Amino acid sequence: MSIKHKESVESYVACHVDIVAALENLAEFVQNMPAPDDDCVLPNLHYGHLGTLKQMRVHLADAMRMADAFCKD
Fold first, then answer.
1. 49, 67, 47: which is closest to 59 by C-alpha?
2. Contact, 9 vs 3, CB < 8 A?
3. The predicted structure's pLDDT at residue 73
4. What is the rounded CA–CA span in Å between residue 30 and residue 67?
């Protein structure tokens, strides 16, 4: 099966561009996250950030499951 409907192809291309940009942005964010200092302290962070990171991890796991399912179709 192939998608030939022009608007659908354009929608696919737009989604692809947005996903690539989002992943690049997310990769830059993760690469620049602070590391613990020598005293095992994370400077300039508070405990609320941990909840946010845990939620991001859950959403990324969901996205990976969606990507796996996409590849199997």
1. 67
2. yes
3. 72
4. 20
